[in-house]
Task: inverse folding
């Protein structure tokens, strides 16, 4: 059963949508640097391909713990000056920026893993309230446009962040080689730039966007006072899992197949390209670092494509349906991942990244737009946090099973994981057809 807010929300202008979404430009700097370079950093510090998924567990596990708690807390926060979500934007951005400065200075594998925990937890503190921000401020008829604007900034931030190591290496002539076991300077400087971009972009949204107050502020404060106490809060946080809307349960299955594929892509693209195209598995070699830079270029392509496609998706959804658009995009992305196994020329790898970018644009837009109209307004942040369990759980499963799979079934060949992920993503697209979406037409 769909539940909608009673309050009539004002229609926002293009620039208001821009300001409220601009923080995602910085957030994606964090995610893109993490997704593009974490396996590279781990490999440089001595990790083998079958160990990578286990070390990556830090990222989804922190999301599992942080997301619903932050969503719950932000639902139950109101400050006359700073609003409901913006305090979390700011704190998360500050902590994530610190983590981005620390990550490339890790001198041992265990240090990099610990910083990954801090980085992912901090990114989630600022990111999850951003998803609820759209539901707070926008009428349902504008919500797909709101999520599409976020996707545009995610794509734009991803392009620049993914290209940074190549830019520092090729244009600023910064060293891209491992010296005495340390992370290359090109990667270090990229993370420094990312930390600054993250903080300043989120600060822009904090200072330029406003928030709608609760319909009855005094009633809100009274209800908040009644909910005080650790036991009550824990019951609220975890009790909502049994009250998920039907649409959310259906989307959970789609998310499982989708994010299983994405985690495999993020973890194994660098070693897969290094072996399948550049002919090396030595994480400390110069040619492996060159492959790492090239993967940054490839990830920039899918981020750039997603930024452009984001504005087309609402139009396509208007003439077809949101779930039909999502199904097509996931199938395209899945087939693109599968094709990587058959490509041995680095330039030709750009073609499947276009398909991955189409899928990425929809992944960041359509499930959230479909879900937002099915959620109670007062618990928007909480349920968005719960929904992201179905983003992190498949990543945890992937990290637990892919190590043994690549070691014992794929004989250490990382590219086979990308094929497996492509099949999974295509299945997710087909499953989308079962999702219920009775939304208003997008304007």
Result:
């Amino acid at each position: 059963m769909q539940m909608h807010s009673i309050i009539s929300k004002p229609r926002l202008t293009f620039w208001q949508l821009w300001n409220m979404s601009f923080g995602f430009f910085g957030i994606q700097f964090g995610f893109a640097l993490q997704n593009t370079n974490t396996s590279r950093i781990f490999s440089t510090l001595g990790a083998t391909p079958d160990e990578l998924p286990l070390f990556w567990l830090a990222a989804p596990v922190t999301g599992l713990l942080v997301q619903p708690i932050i969503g719950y807390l932000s639902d139950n926060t109101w400050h006359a000056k700073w609003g409901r979500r913006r305090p979390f934007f700011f704190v998360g951005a500050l902590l994530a920026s610190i983590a981005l400065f620390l990550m490339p200075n890790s001198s041992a594998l265990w240090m990099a893993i610990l910083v990954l925990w801090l980085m992912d937890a901090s990114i989630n503190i600022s990111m999850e309230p951003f998803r609820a921000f759209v539901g707070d401020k926008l009428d349902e008829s504008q919500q797909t446009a709101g999520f599409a604007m976020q996707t545009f900034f995610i794509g734009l931030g991803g392009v620049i962040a993914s290209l940074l190591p190549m830019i520092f290496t090729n244009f600023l002539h910064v060293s891209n080689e491992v010296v005495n076991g340390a992370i290359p300077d090109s990667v270090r400087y990229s993370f420094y730039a990312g930390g600054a971009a993250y903080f300043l972009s989120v600060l822009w949204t904090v200072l330029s966007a406003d928030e709608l107050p609760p319909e009855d502020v005094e009633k809100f404060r009274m209800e908040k006072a009644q909910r005080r106490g650790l036991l009550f809060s824990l019951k609220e946080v975890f009790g909502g899992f049994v009250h998920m809307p039907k649409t959310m349960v259906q989307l959970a299955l789609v998310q499982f197949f989708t994010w299983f594929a994405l985690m495999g892509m993020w973890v194994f693209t660098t070693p897969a390209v290094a072996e399948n195209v550049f002919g090396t598995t030595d994480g400390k070699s110069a040619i492996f670092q060159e492959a790492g830079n090239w993967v940054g270029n490839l990830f920039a392509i899918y981020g750039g494509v997603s930024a452009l496609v984001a504005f087309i998706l609402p139009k396509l959804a208007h003439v077809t349906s949101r779930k039909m658009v999502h199904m097509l995009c996931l199938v395209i992305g899945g087939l693109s991942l599968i094709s990587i196994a058959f490509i041995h020329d680095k330039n030709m790898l750009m073609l499947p990244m276009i398909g991955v970018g189409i899928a990425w644009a929809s992944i960041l837009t359509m499930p959230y737009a479909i879900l937002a109209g099915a959620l109670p307004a007062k618990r928007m942040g909480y349920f968005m946090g719960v929904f992201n369990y179905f983003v992190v759980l498949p990543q945890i499963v992937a990290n637990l099973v892919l190590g043994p799979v690549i070691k014992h079934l794929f004989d250490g060949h990382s590219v086979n994981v990308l094929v497996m992920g492509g099949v999974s993503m295509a299945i997710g697209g087909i499953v989308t057809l079962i999702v219920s979406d009775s939304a208003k037409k997008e304007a």
Q: What stands out?
A: The CA atoms of residues 166 and 293 lie 5 Å apart. The longest helix spans residues 140-170.
